[in-house]
Amino acid sequence: METFGVISLLPVTVVIVTAIITRRALEPLMLGTFVGFFILEQQFFVAAYLDGLWTEIGDSAYFIVIFGLFGIYNKLLEDANAISGFTKLSTKFADTKKKTGLLTWIMGNIFFLDNYFSILGNAVSNRKLSDSNKMSRELFAFNVNVVACAICVLVPIALWGVFMSGNIENVLGLEEGTGIAEIAKAVPFMFYAWVSLVFVLLYNFKIIPLFGNMKKAELRAEQTGQVFPDSTPTEQTEDEEKPETNIINFLLPMIALIGTTVVTGELTYGLVVGVVLCLVMYIAQGILKPAAAFDSIVGGFCDMMICTAIVISAFVLQQANDALGLAPFVIEAVQPFMSPNMLPVVTFCVLLSLGFVTGSFWGMAAVCFPIVLPLALAIDANLSLTIGAVISGAAAASTVCFYCDSVTLTCSITKIKNIEYARTALPLAVPMIIVAIILYVIAGFAL
């Protein structure tokens, strides 16, 4: 495959620098993608971009549908004030910010099946509770996304585990279904996921003090009661006063969503059942009139348009990165460091870097497994440790890439901008990454 060398880093550099300057996500992604296609196609770059966009819209139909369903489900709960009963009950147990942080951590782990699933269930359930205890939306978003991205890789039967096990089976020539066992053996070595779960608690209990922009956000929330960032439009921060509803109006749709997802193994089906049940219950009780309920459907889908556009734009950027040979260039650059002792930590850092600059975690894992696992066997490195490093690197990237699907979904539901997540959450992730790197260095030499 032809690579463009160090110039392949230019589109990603443009995205990151522009995002920092403008404090936006969608436009920098588009600009970086334009730069990538200009390098590839010169005067025909606009046509190449439009072709890539059109292709990605077709390939990303799943994301358009599932993000739309997320928005509709969220909007129905919001317009019906269905969460009020749950919030009233949970306030009796989580009456402080620390307890709210603990509850968010616990619920994020309970919804382990998929990171989207964890984000939806946790954010919708606890965002008003976090507001009432003056937790900034930035810290709340950090809690929700980090826990979701950690737990979904630590449980082998979750959707991430199923995907990763399939890749391992193909690379190692294992029988179908046996890859889960390899994932299970690698779980203890998914250091970043374990470390991040611990750090979320340490930050919320103030055992490790918050710092940087996150500390400023928390001081703003505590001292002024303003839980949203200054950049959040006023109309998004003001909730219309609505009568409280019975807790059953939240629990039944959520239980139906969870049950359907677990039985079918498909989150889309769970969301459809949840949405239909919300419509039936709220219209039947007169909480929402039929016209208002269907307005919620349209409004919820529209609420997710920017979220969907950011994710699709990240995928188009990945097309340009793939054509420029970004992943092979990075892997080739680190090959001199691929000794048995250093392979795990190098693998973790490569997956983290590639995931961050491409916004693709499953994709980068699929790219690296066929390279890293045969290399681990050839140089007699610990296979389980190496698998753990690949998956852990992907999980780390999904907590820090501010334009990826996981962060974008979290920001959409918590109603903050992606760049606000980047400004506040990324510094908190740095100590977690450093600890994980140290553990991979130690394990690489010990095992």
Structure description:
The protein starts with 9 loop residues before the first helix and ends with a helix. The chain has helices at residues 10-22, 26-41, 45-59, 61-79, 84-91, 97-110, 115-132, 137-154, 159-172, 179-186, 191-204, 212-224, 234-237, 248-264, 267-285, 290-303, 305-324, 326-334, 343-358, 361-378, 383-400, 405-414, 418-446. By secondary structure, the chain is an all-alpha fold. It has a domain at 62-181 and 194-233 and 241-305. The longest helix has 29 residues, at 418-446. It is built from 23 helices and no strands. The protein is globular. The mean pLDDT is 85.
Annotate the secondary structure layout:
Layout: H1 10-22, H2 26-41, H3 45-59, H4 61-79, H5 84-91, H6 97-110, H7 115-132, H8 137-154, H9 159-172, H10 179-186, H11 191-204, H12 212-224, H13 234-237, H14 248-264, H15 267-285, H16 290-303, H17 305-324, H18 326-334, H19 343-358, H20 361-378, H21 383-400, H22 405-414, H23 418-446
Helix pairs in contact: 1-2, 2-3, 2-17, 3-17, 4-15, 4-16, 4-17, 5-7, 6-7, 6-8, 6-11, 7-8, 7-22, 8-11, 8-21, 8-22, 8-23, 9-10, 9-20, 10-21, 11-23, 12-23, 14-15, 17-22, 19-20, 19-21, 19-23, 20-21, 21-23
